[in-house]
Design goal:
Number of strands: 13
Number of domains: 2
CATH class of the largest domain: Mainly Beta
Radius of gyration: 23 Å
Shape: elongated
Helix content: 10-25%
Structural class: alpha+beta
Number of helices: 5
CATH superfamily of the largest domain: chitin-binding protein cbp21
CATH architecture of the largest domain: Distorted Sandwich
Length: 292
């Protein structure tokens, strides 16, 4: 019985180690153009803005890289409700859905070819879909699926993760100017991630004024306040917030992914089963020896 108890204790200890010390899942969010969730995270460029303050007051601290829903499998319109697109319908992120005209924006050229950046941690196979709002969109109204184009302007499957970010080049629809929103869907298995990036579309041409394809977009602050920022080497933004203080941006700052225990469950239970079988085999051998 002593051996049995030791084996059981060993199994429990190893199970706890496997569960607590398991790796964090790969999460992410757009940093070019900067998304609401990335901009409002604790080290985000826009965390001190009025819109971010309202979002945090409504739903608490923003886990900027964790807006995900399991089991969607492409049925986005069925699973994510109108008015809840930026939060993916999750109550913990409902502040990101607030209809406000003062969400911080990024200036992009209408019809321009841009390099989009999606910050992440661990490589994950999946497909990115980038949508743009139709003419007549207003951030002062709840975002609906009907406000988005029926088809994405950019679809990219399984891009490589380099320097902590997925980067992909695409061309924005031409002929639209003014306030708009880019809605990003990253479909992996089993989760799908959702993000909202507020933008102002300007009169056309390639990004950054250089006219070259694949140039990174030039993020700026809120057009109403006149704040500005410049792209970082990683595709994120480092600049001044509306109060004038320098703050870190997720494009260059630390990533703090939320541990996803659901993805570790198969490993945990498999380990437990193997340990239980090993303990049973050990007991069987010991009993046979006693009998002989």
């Amino acid at each position: 019985m002593t051996i049995a108890r030791v084996s059981a204790a060993l199994a429990v200890s190893l199970l706890l180690v496997a569960f607590i010390g398991g790796p964090a899942a790969a999460h992410g969010a757009p940093t070019t153009p900067l998304s609401r969730s990335a901009g409002c995270q604790p080290q985000g460029q826009w965390v001190r803005s009025a819109a971010c303050a309202a979002a945090i007051a409504s739903s608490g601290k923003v886990d900027w890289d964790n807006i995900r829903v399991a089991g969607v499998n492409g049925r986005d319109k069925e699973k994510i409700p109108d008015g809840g697109l930026c939060s993916a319908g999750l109550s913990g992120f409902r502040g990101l859905d607030l209809p406000r005209a003062d969400w911080q924006t990024t200036a992009l050229p209408s019809g321009g070819q841009l390099t989009f950046s999606y910050r992440s941690t661990i490589p994950h196979p999946g497909t990115f879909r980038w949508y743009l709002t139709k003419d007549g969109y207003s951030p002062a109204r709840p975002l609906r699926w009907a406000d988005l184009d029926d088809k994405p302007f950019l679809t990219v499957a399984n891009p490589p993760l380099k320097n902590g970010a997925y980067t992909m080049t695409g061309k924005l629809p031409a002929g639209r100017t003014g306030r708009h929103l880019i809605y990003t869907v990253w479909q992996t298995n089993p989760d799908t991630y959702y993000s909202c990036s507020d933008v102002v579309l300007t009169g056309g041409g390639a990004a950054g004024g250089g006219g070259a394809a694949g140039t990174s977009a030039t993020p700026v602050g809120d057009a109403a306040t006149g704040t500005s920022a410049t792209p970082s080497a990683a595709g994120g933004v480092a600049g001044a917030d509306p109060a004038g203080a320098r703050v870190a941006d997720p494009g260059t700052g630390p990533i703090r992914p939320v541990a996803d225990t659901s993805r570790m469950l198969p490993f945990v239970f498999g380990t437990a089963a193997l340990l239980a079988l090993a303990a049973a085999a050990l007991l069987f051998v010991l009993r046979r020896r006693r009998m002989t």
